[in-house]
Amino acid sequence: MDLRLSDRVQRIQPSPTLAVTARAAELRDQGRDIIGLGAGEPDFTTPEPIRRAAAEAAEAGHTKYTPVDGIPALKRAIIDKFRADNDLSYAPEEVMVSCGGKQVVFNLALALLQEGDEAVIPGPYWVSYPDIVKLAGAEPVTIPTDDTAGFKITAHQLENALSDRSRLLILNSPANPTGAVYTEDELQALATVIRNQPQLVILTDDIYEKILLGAFPFANILSVAPDLKQRTVVLNGVSKAFAMTGWRIGYAGGPRGLIGAMKKLQSQSTSNPAAVSQHAALAALEADDALIQPMVDAFRERHNYVAEALNTLPYVSCRRAEGAFYVFPAFHEALKALGLEDDLALATHLLDTAGVALVPGSAFGAPGYMRLSFATDLDSLRQAMDRLHRALAG
Ligand code: PLP
What is the phi/psi pair of residue 48, to 5°? Predict the structure, then answer.
């Protein structure tokens, strides 16, 4: 039977990273030793106190439906977190818990956007933003940046990208895939442009807030422009900071009307996030940041190593990351030297010849770059760099 699929689902592309992942799996099946540097998640196990809280919650019978927007204790912990870390004050109706940060983006896009609307997305971007915008029937408008600009947009670029159809601006700092972090001054400049566009809602995706590698402290648009709070949604979650990607807990703070609409959508899709996971997230938010520190220290040490090692590879140049656990080196020269057509061909070539899996930059809207995740142990990283060196020196 020839099944007709919806226009909606046909609007989105299968991830360009799938080809690389499939090839890596194939090579592993053949017994090849593949070093995977493509993962978008910490390699650490969720810390013990959090795992214990989840086990205790299951034993205590927290196994039923919860309120759609999260258990009251977790919402209170989220409100406390926003106040302590971000100097933001929210009422319970202004926060909600979702199934990962991804569902926050999904809920927001579907609650806000419709046909004819545009969502402005600085690139290189997290792969899901444009596709979620398309699922909502709107059009992603990307603002390209490169390594010479530190992968950050300027106020001037933002101004040029905005139109009277722009409804949503997505900011992500520290950023996936580049590790770029906006400074307060840079955000201040963007805020000046945003103030002239009263129809524009801002999503600040702060999921990597706790993973800072450089000298810049964390700031988001509301740190410098609290006057924008009534049209800003703050996304955060436990996935990256607490090594809890599999638990699926993200959360949002934002204007009551918008959060209410997002909650309504969630009530007719997934309902509440898993009850046991909510108890685990509560333990995470109530824990001291000391729980996170060893992981951040490890990311910093690995970053120092890979950023330096990548710059010693032939035809490769790499900017240092300021946050998250990715670097985004430029391979444009390597493409030319190896006579390869594009970064997808390069990713396949590096897999086949070096047994190293990287994600091609075109997946993030930035052809010619490759994303390397250093959420893996130093020994593997050292081995990967040796292998890449051999493959590129050819
Ligand atoms: N935002 C960014 C920038 C991400 O990189 C990710 C995960 O890769 C998410 C949000 C979503 O995280 P999760 O849905 O796992 O909580």
Answer: -55, -45
Question: What spacing in Å lies between the alpha carbon of 389 and ligand 1's midpoint?
Answer: 31
Half-sphere exposure of 177 (CA within 13 A, CB side): 33
Summarize pLDDT for 192-239 with one digit per residue, the tens. Answer: 999 999 999 999 999 999 999 998 899 999 999 999 999 999 999 999
In this structure, the residues whose C-beta lies within 6 A of any atom of ligand 1 are 40, 100-102, 126, 172, 176, 205, 207, 237, 239, 245, 250
Residue 127 Cα to ligand 1 middle (Å): 10
What are the tens digits of pLDDT across the range 277-304?
A: 999 999 999 998 899 999 999 999 999 9
Q: In sequence order, what E strands does the chain have?
A: 35-36, 95-98, 118-122, 139-143, 166-172, 201-205, 232-237, 250-253, 326-327, 356-357, 359-360, 370-373
Which tokens is 184 given?
Answer: 């307060």
Provide DSSP, 259-311. Answer: HHHHHHHHHTTT-SPPHHHHHHHHHHHHS-GGGTHHHHHHHHHHHHHHHHHHH
